[in-house]
Specification:
The complex is a heterotrimer.
Chain A lengths: L12 H7 L1 H23 L37 H36 L2 H16 L2 H12 L3 H28 L2 H8 L4 H37 L11 H8 L8 H28 L6
Helix pairs in contact in A: 1-10, 2-3, 2-10, 3-6, 3-8, 4-6, 5-6, 6-8, 8-9, 8-10, 9-10
Chain B lengths: L3 E12 L2 E13 L4 E5 L6 H8 L7 E4 L2 E4 L2 E2 L5 H11 E4 L13 H11 L5 H14 L5 H5 L8 H14 L4 E5 L7 H18 L2 E6 L2 H5 L4 E6 L2 E7 H6 L4 H8 L51 E3 L2 E3 L11
Parallel strand pairs in B: 3-9, 3-10, 7-8, 8-9
Antiparallel strand pairs in B: 1-2, 1-4, 1-5, 5-6, 10-11, 11-13, 12-13
Helix pairs in contact in B: 3-4, 3-6, 4-6, 6-7
Chain C lengths: L1 H27 L13 H13 L13 H36 L4 H15 L2 H15 L22 H7 L1 H4 L2 H37 L2 H8 L4 H19 L1 H19 L4 H10 L3 H29 L1 H4 L3
Classes of the chains: A mainly alpha, B alpha/beta, C mainly alpha.
Protein name (chain B): Dipeptide ABC transporter ATP-binding protein
Keywords (chain B): ATP-binding, Cell inner membrane, Cell membrane, Membrane, Nucleotide-binding, Transport
InterPro entries (chain B): AAA+_ATPase (IPR003593), ABC_Ni/Peptide_Import (IPR050388), ABC_transporter-like_ATP-bd (IPR003439), Oligopep_ABC_C (IPR013563), P-loop_NTPase (IPR027417)
């Protein structure tokens, strides 16, 4: 549709981001969750594993049967929900962070290498990556856990492997795309070395896409780790991991719904705020990636 | 009586940076069968004006007009649905990019047939015959084959012919051609122009030719409007306007094509403007050409009115005289 | 057309080879060998493995001592029933909501829809399923908690599609059994369809809005073609193409989701069968299950590609 021609100054990315209401709310919530994860051990009222045998399944304080000693109630073994959730935040975010970081590092290295290897080999490698990408991520993680066995460390390896192909794809395609642009051709003709080309010209142009992928990988990783925990293939009880807590609550949904709603809410709020921030980052950094 | 008469037509766009006046109090009158031209640079509001007349503005735009008469009907007193119906059966429009103006997922035949169905109709067979007739009228020889093809299989020139055929299917009294040849190869350009003029004669269909290129208008049109910054700055009979531009902008536009224009004299210095076309959200105070105009003085901070001068209209405090040219 | 077909075919072959390599490695982990190989060399063994698969010998479960392929085929219909039902729900509701939102852009319906689709996008399906159970089954008592049908009905598994089998028992139970099966199916299907529905609705809206701004829609409007016709004939056809490209992602989400959904609702399908095998380290079953589910994903992606070619004349008939 024809619009009147208007030439206005492009806004800086952070201005675009800060004008995005959803992204700002997401950022605030995410920072709050991060803060709680950081100071969790100091503000948690109890040891997350300690069982108050006489205080089993006490509801949160907004219930008439609530007990102020246990702000968010206790679970079936009499463990304090608030303490478990706080420790769970610490555990989940730590794991997610490490998983995404390793996956991104490995993925970017493979992707960058792929952009410079011989085309036949590259196309084969990218086909494999496409295959891994087309795989349902949880099914892939389950298959990997099946090989190396259930448990938290193995679940983490599985999620790392699941996340890598995205980074390989993005890095390889952005580098290849940039390498074909006129300015890189010009730099090449000027005799620029490959590595210099990569660091000076190409790298700054793929960083936005990588940052966007990084944020969305956080939510995928968090969800997959929790899902594996929920299915009993990841973190094992009595570990205070959100997915595992959900799994343990299954038998008590009817009598103690808070044991299910609270950890789920924690996962959901974290994922939602990451996704909101991710949407904002994407819109701010690269309008071309916009839906 | 005029076929189309529009007075004080204004179009505003609502954007993030405020309300932008894309067309400002334009006045247009076209008689049946007449060929008129609208000329201006990109961003001058000429395309928006065309869309406004054809009732195709986007929802972000608001349109006002003191008078909007089409074929004897007062459109300002109609509901939007009635207005759209009247416009679509009297006015057709073709665009700059013929290939993207056709639906990529539907065959030429389907799109043509649909248009015929909405304007007159008939049985399947009648519609097919009508479509073939239209295709041959616009100079497409292998109409039977093209009927089954998709826009991406045709060249830009052929697609523009298809667009014209679809326009004809509505049997319009006015055809608006918004830069109909700009995206086409040079040799194809004149073919399309010839076709438009031929159809204008054969069907007594008025033609409004919108362009940025004077050379297209000089031999084809009876009357020309010159637009700048959303306003009509000068209008008049084509021959007069080309041989003796009154508005400095018209003169600059004519001189942008060296060795061209009826006022061209060998050895004369070309006249050009400083700076560039203003953005519509940062229009200067007073005369929009003011900051770029070598003739401007204090009085030009007052917005000039469109006034009559020797049978023409000009929006300038200091119209150029014979000796200035 | 021929070139695209060839490309599809080569992708298919590479995918299947890569996949069988993975499942071959999986099958080698088993303590009791899944297949008896003639050769000692691992590469030759791989080809023998392919031979076994093609002959329909997918190994024998180390726990139940049953044929993996047979076991799979027994559990498969339950999963298919759930997936198909959920997909139909996701696609029809997603498309409908997306179209509705795009025609009322900026209205309260649009805003509500877009917010809820963002929420749906971030929803952990395992929590969502439990919330639905808590609300609809345990609190309101509208739907059954788990399973495919009440024990009161004695249904002979002719096709193993419960909806069909119950209809085949029409003489015995009338429509009661069928309705009971449907009743059991609703909540799992809703659980499974929510996230894809949110994505489809969001995509439909944005894709349709982009298409509605295009020049050929302007042309159609100038011809006086009705609004409904412009959306359904002119816009949707083109808007569907980008939606199809995310169809592959959708099937991935559904396949991951179906495992969790079956786990929550004790739905006797592939997911539950596979999870059991993983926790009991039954490698023959894991290998077969992963292989079968992946083949479904690959086949689905292939089908999507063909629909895409059908919808886009530029691919079907290059100029």
């Amino acid at each position: 549709m024809i619009k009147p021609m208007v030439t206005s100054q492009p806004k800086p990315s952070w201005v675009i981001f800060s004008q995005n209401k959803g992204a700002m709310i997401g950022l605030v919530v995410l920072l709050l969750i991060l803060l709680m994860a950081l100071i969790g051990p100091w503000i948690a009222p109890y040891d997350p594993a300690h069982q108050f045998n006489s205080k089993v399944l006490i509801p949160p304080i907004w219930d008439s049967a609530g007990d102020f000693q246990y702000f968010l109630g206790t679970d079936d073994l009499g463990r304090d929900m608030l303490s478990r959730l706080l420790y769970g935040a610490r555990l989940s975010l730590q794991l997610t962070f490490v998983v995404v970081l390793i996956a991104a590092l490995v993925g970017v290295m493979i992707g960058a290498a792929a952009a410079f290897i011989n085309p036949t080999l590259r196309s084969l490698l990218m086909r494999i990556m496409d295959l891994l990408l087309s795989f349902p991520s949880l099914l892939l993680a389950i298959a990997i856990v099946a090989i190396i066995g259930p448990g938290l460390p193995n679940a983490i390896y599985a999620v790392i492997i699941v996340l890598i192909p995205q980074f390989v794809r993005i890095t390889q395609s952005s580098i290849s795309e940039e390498l074909n642009k006129d300015y890189v051709m010009a730099a090449k003709l000027d005799g620029a070395k490959r590595l210099r080309l990569l660091t000076h010209h190409v790298w700054p142009n793929i960083v936005p896409a990588l940052i966007v992928q990084l944020t969305f990988s956080f939510s995928t990783a968090l969800l997959d780790i929790a899902a594996l925990g929920f299915l009993g293939l990841g973190a094992q009880p009595p570990m205070a991991e959100w997915g595992t807590m959900l799994s343990e609550s299954r038998a008590f949904i009817q009598f103690a719904p808070w044991t299910m709603t609270l950890p789920g809410l924690a996962i959901f709020m974290t994922v939602l705020s990451i996704n909101l921030v991710g949407d904002g980052v994407r819109d701010a950094l690269d309008p071309r990636l916009n839906r | 009586m005029s076929l189309l008469q529009v007075e004080n037509l204004s179009v505003d766009f609502k954007t993030d940076s405020g309300i932008i006046p894309a067309v400002d109090s334009a006045k247009i009158a076209i008689k049946a069968g007449q060929v008129q031209g609208v000329i201006g640079e990109s961003g001058s509001g000429k395309s928006v004006m065309a869309l406004a007349i054809a009732g195709l503005l986007s929802p972000a735009a608001t349109m006002r007009a003191d008078l909007f008469n089409l074929d004897g009907h007062d459109l300002t007193r109609m509901s939007p649905a009635e207005r759209q119906k009247l416009i679509s059966s009297n006015i057709s429009i073709i665009f700059q990019e013929p290939t993207s103006s056709l639906n990529p997922s539907l065959t030429i035949g389907y799109q043509l047939d649909e248009t015929i169905r909405f304007h007159g109709g008939g049985t399947r067979k009648q519609r097919y015959d009508k479509a073939q007739e239209l295709l041959s009228q616009v100079g497409i020889i292998d109409g039977k084959r093209r009927y089954k093809e998709y826009p991406h299989q045709l060249s830009g020139g052929l697609n523009q012919r298809v667009m014209i055929a679809m326009a004809l299917a509505c049997e319009p009294k006015l055809l608006i051609a918004d830069e109909p040849t700009t995206a086409l190869d040079v040799t194809v350009q004149s073919q399309i122009l010839d076709l438009l003029l031929k159809l204008n004669e054969e069907h007594n269909m008025a033609l409004m030719l919108i362009t940025h290129d004077f050379s297209i208008l000089s031999e084809t049109t009876d009357k020309v409007y010159v637009m700048y910054g959303g306003q009509i700055v000068e209008s008049g009979r084509t021959y007069n306007l080309l041989s003796q531009p009154y508005h400095p902008y018209t003169k600059a536009l004519l001189d942008s094509v060296p060795h061209y224009g009826l006022h061209y004299k060998k050895g004369r210095r070309l006249f050009n403007l400083k700076g560039s076309t203003p953005s519509l959200d940062h229009l200067p105070v007073g005369c929009y050409l003011g900051p770029r105009c070598p003739y401007a003085n204090k009085q030009c901070v007052q917005p000039p009115e469109l006034r009559s001068l020797k049978g023409r209209k000009v929006r300038c405090h200091f119209p150029l005289l014979e000796e200035d040219n | 057309m021929f070139a695209t077909l060839l490309k599809q075919l080569s992708t298919l072959v590479i995918s299947l080879l890569g996949l069988t390599v993975l499942t071959f490695i999986l099958s080698l982990q088993s303590e009791t060998p899944v297949h008896q190989f003639q050769s000692d060399h691992v590469v030759v063994q791989y080809f023998e493995y392919l031979q076994f698969l093609l002959n329909g010998d997918w190994g024998t479960s180390s726990i139940h001592k049953r044929s993996v392929l047979k076991d799979f085929l027994q559990h498969f219909p339950a999963t298919i029933e759930l997936i198909v039902f959920a997909m139909v729900l996701a696609v029809t509701a997603g498309l409908g909501l997306g179209i509705l939102a795009s025609t009322r852009r900026g209205g309260w319906l649009d805003n509500t829809l877009m917010t809820s689709s963002l929420v749906g996008y971030s929803m952990p399906i395992f929590w969502w399923g439990m919330l639905l159970v808590l609300l609809f089954s345990l609190t309101l008592g509208w739907t059954p908690v788990a399973g495919r049908i009440d024990f009161a009905y004695d249904i002979e598994p002719y096709t193993r599609f419960m909806l069909i089998d119950t209809l085949l028992h029409h003489n015995q139970y009338g429509f009661a059994a069928f309705l009971n099966a449907l009743h059991h199916l609703i909540l799992p299907a809703v659980t499974l369809s929510t996230i894809p529905m949110a994505i489809v609705a969001r995509m439909t809206r944005s894709s349709l809005l982009a298409v509605l701004k295009s020049e050929y829609i302007r042309t159609a409007r100038s011809k006086g073609i009705s609004k409904q016709r412009i959306i359904w004939v002119h816009a949707l056809r083109n808007a569907l193409q980008p939606i199809l490209t995310i169809g592959g992602v959708q099937i991935s989400i559904i396949m991951s989701g179906v495992i969790i959904t079956e786990y929550i609702f004790a739905w006797p399908g592939i997911g539950k069968w596979l999870l059991e095998a993983v926790s009991r380290r039954d490698f023959a079953t894991i290998q077969g299950g992963v292989l079968a589910l992946s083949i479904i994903v690959i086949a689905f992606n292939l089908a999507l590609d063909f629909i895409g070619i059908y919808l886009n004349p530029r691919l079907r008939r290059p100029s």
